[in-house]
């Protein structure tokens, strides 16, 4: 296999889209929590720590999942042979190191969030993923925590708490749909995911209920005056995309989980535009 193909395999392992998106969430958390130009260094450090940590979490997840992914995702870098398990393991160690070094200049609260998250990322696949619903909650909490992490970087950890909860709830819904999608490989591996324990339909109804709470709560930043109509004009379409996706999940889980991700990314953009508009720097 060519050097280029192997290099692409390493980059692909990090799921760069997720890693960058998580960094954007951290930036948004700091932005919404009131970051000013003077906070640039700590915000950049927090974003870098999040990008490194998310990349590390994705790489170590594929390292631990290499046997499941031979069934579920044979096209992924390790099962297809682009990256060796040992190469993936040491690559994740380097990325975890980058996250730790980036976080060292941050306030203690932010460092505490980073330490908890890094331990959770390492433990996720081995200890949490196979417990019905627990792994889903861990990934949802990790995703939501990026907003708290960005706020903590500038000394205001709860400055973006509502956005944290919205992201966590929507991610929980998507993780449940992803487990329905992966049920074949997870069964082969003896995992006790939610769909395996309570059934696919019940899991999807549960995911739908969680999403309904998130969609209802997405009105809060508008109702409490934090964000204006610019936010509403983007978060309402995002809500609609996600609601349609969860309805589709009963027939087509792979399509639904991708559509949920699109809606979530649009919602994240709504947060940024909402905050920018509230500062008068966007329409
Ligand atoms: C109702 C409402 C307004 C919800 C807000 C939704 C929101 C802003 C969610 C944030 C989602 C987002 C942009 C997450 C960043 C990327 C990330 C850390 C995702 C974690 O995903 C883990 C997943 O298991 C990875 O799988 P895959 O995406 O298939 O690679
Ligand atoms: C703020 C700091 C320091 C860290 C945050 C780190 C973040 C945002 C983590 C988000 C969640 C994440 C990237 C988890 C990694 C593990 C992962 C990919 C879980 C989902 O894996 P599986 O359940 O195996 O599903 P797939 O591998 O099929 O996607
Ligand atoms: Mg996996």
Walk me through this protein's architecture.
The protein has one domain (3-278): Farnesyl Diphosphate Synthase. It is built from 14 helices and no strands. The protein has helices at 3-13, 16-32, 40-64, 66-72, 85-103, 108-128, 134-153, 161-181, 183-188, 194-198, 200-217, 220-223, 229-248, 253-278. Helix 3 (40-64) runs parallel beside helix 6 (108-128) and helix 6 runs antiparallel to helix 7 (134-153). 48% of the residues are buried. The mean pLDDT is 94. Bound molecules: ligand LD7WCAPV, geranylgeranyl diphosphate and magnesium ion.
Keywords:
283 residues; globular; transmembrane; mainly alpha; Farnesyl Diphosphate Synthase; transferase; UbiA_sf; geranylgeranylglycerol-phosphate geranylgeranyltransferase activity; binds ligand LD7WCAPV; binds magnesium ion; 78% helix; binds geranylgeranyl diphosphate; DGGGP_synth
Brief rundown of the structure:
With 283 residues, the protein is an all-alpha fold. It has 14 helices and no strands.
Secondary structure layout plus pairing:
Elements: H1 3-13, H2 16-32, H3 40-64, H4 66-72, H5 85-103, H6 108-128, H7 134-153, H8 161-181, H9 183-188, H10 194-198, H11 200-217, H12 220-223, H13 229-248, H14 253-278
Helix pairs in contact: 2-3, 2-7, 2-14, 3-5, 3-6, 3-7, 5-6, 6-7, 7-8, 8-11, 8-14, 11-13, 13-14
Geranylgeranyl diphosphate (GRG) binds at residues 18, 22, 49-50, 53-54, 57-58, 61, 65, 99, 114, 117, 121, 124, 129, 139, 142-143, 145-146, 149, 178, 182.
């Amino acid at each position: 296999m060519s050097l280029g193909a192997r290099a692409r395999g390493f980059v692909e392992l990090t799921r760069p889209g997720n890693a960058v998106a998580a960094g954007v969430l951290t930036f948004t958390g700091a932005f919404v929590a009131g970051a000013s130009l003077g906070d640039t260094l700590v915000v950049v450090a927090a974003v870098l720590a999040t990008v490194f940590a998310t990349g590390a979490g994705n790489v170590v997840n594929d390292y631990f999942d290499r046997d499941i992914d031979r069934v579920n995702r044979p096209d992924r870098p390790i099962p297809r042979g682009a990256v060796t398990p040992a190469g993936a393991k040491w690559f994740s160690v380097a990325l975890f190191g980058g996250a730790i070094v980036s976080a060292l200049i941050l306030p203690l609260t932010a460092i505490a969030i980073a330490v908890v998250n890094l331990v959770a990322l390492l433990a996720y696949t081995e200890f949490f993923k196979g417990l019905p619903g627990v792994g889903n909650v861990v990934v949802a909490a990790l995703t939501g925590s990026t907003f708290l992490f960005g706020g903590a970087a500038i000394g205001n950890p709860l400055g973006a708490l509502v956005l944290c909860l919205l992201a966590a709830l929507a991610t929980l819904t998507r993780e449940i749909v992803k487990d329905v999608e992966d049920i074949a490989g997870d069964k082969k591996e003896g995992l006790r995911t939610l769909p395996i324990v309570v059934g696919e339909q019940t899991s999807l109804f549960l995911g739908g209920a969680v999403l309904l709470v998130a969609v209802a709560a997405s009105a809060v930043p508008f109702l409490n005056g934090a964000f204006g109509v610019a936010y509403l004009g983007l978060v309402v379409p995002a809500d609609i995309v996600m609601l349609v996706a969860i309805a589709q999940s009963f027939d087509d889980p792979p399509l639904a989980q991708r559509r949920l991700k699109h809606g979530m990314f649009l919602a994240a953009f709504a947060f940024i535009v909402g905050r920018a508009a509230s500062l008068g720097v966007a329409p």
